[in-house]
Amino acid sequence: MTDSALARFARLEREPLAPIASGTGFVASVRAVWAHRQLLALLVRRDIKARYKDSALGLLWVLINPIVQLTVYYVVMGQFLQAARGIPDFAIYIFSGLTIYAFFSEMLSGSTGSIVANSGLVKKVYVPREIFPLASIGSAMFTFLVQLAVLIAACFILGVPPFSMGLIYFVPAVGLIIVYGLATGLFLSALNVYLRDVQYLTQVVLMLAMWASPIVYAWTMVNRVFDEFGFPAWLLEIYTNSPLTLAVLGFHRAFWVSGSPADYPPHLALRMAIAFVIGLVLVWACQRLFARLQGNFAQEL
Q1: By residue range, what is the domain housing residue 206?
Q2: Is 124 within the bounds of a domain?
Q3: Number of domains in the chain
Q4: What is the pTM of this model?
């Protein structure tokens, strides 16, 4: 070995070793993701194209899926099971709830398996690992915007355009879904690398979350049932203040103009604001946990 090579090795030995995860703070992670924003955009486009690759209808499935789902729930739940009784404009009511729930469900489903799905990139090159769940969230946001356009068009077709002050609840409802979807997606995507059952458990939890949210039934019905069976008031508060429940109620307030203030819990805006602040704290905590777990991603994959 030459003297120059020995000198290089000696200099390398004197260099301190700094673990990537522990030496990266939250702000530094955000900056790293921003520096790789072009890669993030490419991954989002790749996810969207790959989802409908070799499909004859292509992106039309983004429209077909929610329309078919709306029809099934409207006919089965609204007409056969009489869930539409007492809920005017039931089609808009159920479609608005399904739209915001589908956004959260797709965010969580995609981000949970995002690290494992991109194992080839994770093992070969270093990029901020947060990019992969963020790409899944970006892909889900594209689908959400298309379905939102369908919802708005349905409001006008059915003669109930969302021209009311309740439309201001659209922003906090979407904000809640993004914040909690990001926090939960970061946590589950990291956990899924070590325990692959997480992605299957997530699907079960999402199914339960849909039926536990006031999408095909009214919040007032839940309130009435709690009163009839004598459940404690704090249990109703836990149900009502769930981020997904608040987001669904906010979307109803924005697009279901047939509702009245009695159809919603008191101080809905304040509840959503408090939940949003808690969600921001969870984003920070889950990103810190993600940063600690990402050091062994390549080995686990």
Answers
A1: 26-300
A2: yes
A3: 1
A4: 0.86
